[in-house]
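Q: What does the assembly look like in three dimensions?
Context provided by user:
Components: two
Sequences:
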Amino acid sequence: MTVQENVRKPLDLLSDALGAEMEAVNALIRDRMASQHAPRIPEVTAHLIEAGGKRLRPMLTLAAARMLDYAGPYHIHLAATVEFIHTATLLHDDVVDESRQRRGRPTANLLWDNKSSVLVGDYLFARSFQLMVEPGNLRTLEILSNASATIAEGEVLQLTAAQDLATDESVYLQVVRGKTAALFSAATEVGGVIAGAPDDQVRALFDYGDALGISFQIVDDLLDYGGATETIGKNVGDDFRERKLTLPVIKAVAKASPDERAFWSRTIEAGDQREGDLEHALTLLARHGAMEAARRDALDHAARAKAALAVLPAHSIRDMLADLADFVVSRVA
Amino acid sequence: MTVQENVRKPLDLLSDALGAEMEAVNALIRDRMASQHAPRIPEVTAHLIEAGGKRLRPMLTLAAARMLDYAGPYHIHLAATVEFIHTATLLHDDVVDESRQRRGRPTANLLWDNKSSVLVGDYLFARSFQLMVEPGNLRTLEILSNASATIAEGEVLQLTAAQDLATDESVYLQVVRGKTAALFSAATEVGGVIAGAPDDQVRALFDYGDALGISFQIVDDLLDYGGATETIGKNVGDDFRERKLTLPVIKAVAKASPDERAFWSRTIEAGDQREGDLEHALTLLARHGAMEAARRDALDHAARAKAALAVLPAHSIRDMLADLADFVVSRVA
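A: Here is the predicted structure of the complete assembly.
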């Protein structure tokens, strides 16, 4: 952590400012995660709720609506919708990645089985669609259903692209927009739409979420290779061991000598990894300035997020959103 | 088959009557199953489209809309939505059941992998939600999003109930309403709603789809144990080998002696199956009249489906729907 622990983080400040509304979102989530008939559903969802999580995405919806003076009540439904989509995606991701841990706890696919994770994930998707219908607003329905399709498309694209050295930065961006940024940008955009904001402000909210989501994912990629400074919470090299082509590697592959290319092909494409390979990968990333170049991209996207806020009304929430963009990249600043 | 081959089947007659509209549905399905970015998606969806299928569910939507003189165009979107939900469910079902064949062809989870089936299924779910938003009709959105939640809930309930001898007929009905009847009843109901039908007719369409779906599933259960007469297309005993408590078994368990109960507990609950067990199961089903009782239930639901049609306007399509209810149970009549 490069920020000092005695400085309050932007997400905590947002949580304080939006506390009552976030409580309403949490109550709605608890209510709709229940099931009258299938006991396995509350078992799995209780596990997910207890695991906590930052509730970053629903907070973005609440923040956008508040900044634009929306009096409610439907930002609560939209924020809960966004969290349901996110949670359903996590359940299915853990099946696809065969993950055993999430947020320091065993995953649902480990505690129960893949079947339960697939079907309870489907249930949460369906619940998210019920929730997004309730505000009766067709434009927010379009935005959220489009985001769901973009997310799923990005996840499928990642299946084939992640282990293919032909994957370039434009394909990477496509995947990241799908798996991460689409839900961030939908979260902020629907907050503006439900508040009746003019088109330029809605567009700015989309751009903020899109840029924030992309910088968030690039930072995640960087931390997986140790980041720029000391790191927390992530094991260095997980992406390498899982043979995922992330931005630093894509940049190093683009500059690779034939020998280096053979190394990446063996370790990522063929999955033949040996003692010392991770260390060699880190050497190659350093040799080509790949970490530094990815870090600059993350900072550029964070700057783009902050710039997008300019057309939005001056508001304490707007300042917190600007700080949030800085905070996301502070982990690699 | 108990119907004669030279008599045209109700589904063929419906196909003829609704041919142009079904072509429009098929074109919309092909269009929306594509993906601009992820090549794995058209690979998997082309496999599904080639496998064909009866398109029974979208036909129900078209039939309801036509019978109530709807001039279009949104019954096409709703019918395609219903088929997308069905197809997404099949992809996930085959992962959950570890199926290797569907409609006589290898399943997607076998040809590609479980990951692709989970994520392409999610993509089709998301596409279904995009499609259902397009008509801009909030009531059809409620019906279809509620049906999606009921389907997922039924699937999860089946996970725990299917191998539990405590599962009684009311739990069975809950599962069947989820996994089969909810989409039938939503398909017919939205056809009526988009046509602007009065409440009593919409209710009748729901009841028809609900009853048709339940009789359809009970017949499926019966055929799995050989049906009442000769059968086609299904291997006798698949449900038994997969340890699924279906209606005939639930009825036999309810009347079981302690010894018989121990047999069901060993074979279904514990999954310890030996040579001759399927034959003994068939003997127990016969001893307690379980097949005959389940057959009567199927006929009762088919009769309920036909009775529901009474409040709908006289129409050649209405007659075909009545014949369809008879046809469904003709396989065990």
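Follow-up: Chain B has one domain: 10-330.
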